[in-house]
Structures are given as structure tokens and as C-alpha cells.
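Appendix B, Record 12. Input sequence as logged:
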Amino acid sequence: PTVIGPQSGAPTRPVRTGAVVSVLAFAGMCAAFTQTILIPIQGELPLLLNASSSDTAWVITITLLVAAICTPISGKLGDMYGKRLMLLISMGSVAVGSAVCAVSDSLPPFLVGRALQGLGFGTIALGISVMRDIVPPRHLGSSVGTMSASLGIGGALGMPFAAAIAQYVSWHALFW
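Logged structural output:
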């Protein structure tokens, strides 16, 4: 286990870096998963949300837009208020956004839920920053690589998983 020194302002208890890297990689996978989960039903969204196809295009766009804006900001907020707190807020916003999307039957609340999910992409920058703080230098490259690979895995698993859930259960179940 790695011990974090008091100079970083972090606790001095041992940290199990393998467990932390695994949790952060899973969080990154979840963030990527939220982006691709709607691709299989994108053509049906106008009917499902009672909106025009040009308006439902925002379902994908808003998540990417919020992610692009919040990723650098979440890194700075992590430096200011603590990375753990910002990670919890980031992943909490994904959970709240997913719940909002799961109960939505119209476009406006669904867009709010998708925007909240976009805040979850801050997890990636925060996770890599946490890794730089706790992972020994000789393992840092492979740890960051693991998190980066988890983004591809989450994106790749999102589409077939979403297609099966939407076909056999319900499109609302995609978000639960």
C-alpha cells in the first residue's frame, strides 16, 4: 500500500492503489456508457419523447456539450475543494440524471437528465488526477492506460447492452 504524505494535504493512511484504480476505471466506464446508451433507440426518440427529430438530436448533443464544459472545470474544483468530493458530486450527478431520464416522458426533463449525466465526464479528469497523487510513478502509466481503456469498453458495451434492454424490457429501464 502507498502512504500519502501530509505535504499533499491528504490522509496519511495506507491506500490500496489497485482498488482505487479499479473503482476509478469503473466510474470512467459508466461515464462513457451514458454517452452510447441511447444510440440504438435514437431513431425512436421523437416518438418516445413526443418531439421532433431535430429537437431530440439535443439528447446526444447536450451530454457532450456539458461534458466538454465541465471536464476542465471539475479538475479545477477538485484542486480547490477536494478531488474525492468532486468525484462524488460528479458520479452523483450521473445517478440523479439517470433517474430523471428514467421517469421522463417528454423532452425538457429528459434533456435536464442528460445534461446532469454529462457532468459525470468530469470523473475522468478527476480520476487521472487522483491517480497521479496515489499511484507510484512506475505504475502510473498503466493505471492511466487502464482508465483510458475503460472509456472504450464503456462505449463499446453501451450499444449492445442498450439494444437488448430496450428491446426486451423498456427504454426507461436503460437508465435504472
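Helices lie at 17-36, 45-49, 53-56, 58-81, 83-103, 107-118, 122-134, 137-168.
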